[in-house]
Design goal:
With 418 residues, the protein is mainly α. It is built from 21 helices and three strands. 67% of the residues lie in helices and 3% in strands. 42% of the residues are buried.
Length: 418
């Protein structure tokens, strides 16, 4: 174990944050192998192992807590405990470790070199906290799903974010502000998992008040993550225009090789594009079978104006659960209007594309596909599409005529989605 402490001491001497972050990361096999050699994970024993490295305070205390956490998860003592207990104790040890480091990090001036260490430690904390709560749920089978470790982790992550965004070091090049968006990604992900999404607004307000470099100056990975979560926030607030803009920018910046991240973006971008009547790239469904399985029935229904098929897809129990879980059910429900508009456009095209159309054929089509109950319900549905800007024109009720604009009467129905 003295080898890990020596690695930390050497990295500190050079203020090499990247090397120190690799040494203090439970995601690396080298670190796991080193902490796995500790038979007794008690703090007093580990402190004795760390002492010969002569680490300066409070680094010695921080490293001792870190090694305790690793030994609790990967050392031979794991055989004497249940998994839930190991995760619980490891989460507490990492919580103590990060608390020590955050006090140290806040006092560093300059402190940009230590940002990789901050991110590495807090990623480990978040991973351990989630596993600890999941293990506790598996044992207790409690439907209330309390998440004490993740909630404590969220508070710690917020402290890390504050230490970055509020840094006052005069030289921007060495400022801790450069860690801000890395911390935002961790905080947002945690808030979403805890379903404490309203707290994200506090982070956005702090970003607006902070004197930060332009977003584009930060690493691309941080920018993609930030725009992804801001897009999801806008989607939940039903601000579909902003959601589409943020997610589209995230998609444009995401590395082409990162298929997992691209799929995560598309799972929210597709329903928004559909709702807005915008084109979808055919390759999206061709390259991502899970997206095709979820969304293809809706896209085909909208393309044909088949409202009945759209409603049947929306009523499917498995599909409904998936859409609710993703938080896009409301957007897909509203996308039904696109399907209705496409149906009206098809009837208009079959009727000669004139500016004056009888309401009868449209009402018959809507009733036949189960979209409206009776002629009055069909007329109300057509009027609703007009009020929402999907049909340009007006209804002459007395004559049961639909008077359409000569210029693009169906502005959102020219979809070529598959």
């Amino acid at each position: 174990m003295s080898s890990l402490a020596r690695d930390v001491a050497a990295s500190l001497a050079r203020e090499d944050g990247a090397l120190l972050a690799r040494a203090l990361s439970l995601q690396t096999g080298n670190t796991r192998r080193k902490v796995a050699t500790v038979a007794d994970p008690s703090l007093s024993t580990v402190q004795a192992l760390v002492r010969p490295a002569r680490l300066p305070a409070p680094w010695d205390d921080m490293v001792a807590h870190y090694i305790c956490a690793g030994a609790l998860l990967f050392g031979p003592s794991t055989k004497t405990r249940k998994p839930a207990e190991s995760w619980h104790l490891a989460a507490e040890a990492l919580q103590a470790c990060t608390s020590v480091f955050l006090r140290l990090f806040a006092a560093l001036s300059p402190g940009r070199w230590a940002i990789p260490v901050l991110v590495s430690l807090l990623r480990d904390l978040r991973w351990t906290a989630k596993c600890a709560d999941d293990a506790a749920h598996a044992v207790a089978r409690d439907a209330r799903r309390a998440n004490p470790h993740m909630e404590e982790c969220a508070r710690t992550l917020n402290r890390g974010f504050s230490a970055c965004v509020a840094d006052r070091y005069p030289s921007l090049a060495q400022s801790k502000k450069w860690g801000t968006y890395a911390m935002v990604g961790l905080v947002f992900r945690t808030y979403f998992q805890l379903q404490s999404i309203s707290l994200c607004k506090n982070i956005l307000r702090a970003l607006g008040a902070g004197d930060l470099p332009p977003l584009e100056a930060f690493p691309k990975a941080h920018v993609v993550t930030f725009r992804y979560y801001v897009g999801r926030l806008a989607l939940l607030e039903e601000d579909y225009g902003r959601a589409e803009s943020e997610l589209s920018q995230a998609l444009a910046l995401a590395p082409r090789a990162s298929t997992k991240h691209i799929e995560r973006i598309l799972v929210y971008l597709i329903p928004i594009r559909l709702l807005q009547g915008q084109q979808l790239a055919p390759r999206w469904l061709a390259e991502y079978p899970r997206l095709a399985q979820l969304y293809a029935p809706f896209l085909r229904a909208c393309q044909r104006g088949d409202v009945r098929a759209f409603d049947e897809a929306l009523r499917d129990a498995a599909v409904e659960r998936a859409l609710v879980h993703l938080g896009v059910y409301l957007a897909m429900e509203r996308a039904r209007d696109v399907c209705v508009t496409c149906l009206l456009r098809r009837v208009w095209a079959l009727s000669g594309r004139g500016t004056r159309q009888r309401l009868g054929p449209m009402a018959a089509a809507l009733q036949w596909l189960g979209a409206a109950d009776g002629a009055d319900g069909a007329e109300w549905l057509v009027a609703t599409q007009m009020a929402r800007g999907r049909v340009k024109g007006y209804i002459a009720h007395e004559r049961q005529m639909l008077v359409l604009s000569a210029n693009e009467p169906f502005p959102h129905a020219s979809l070529s989605m598959l």
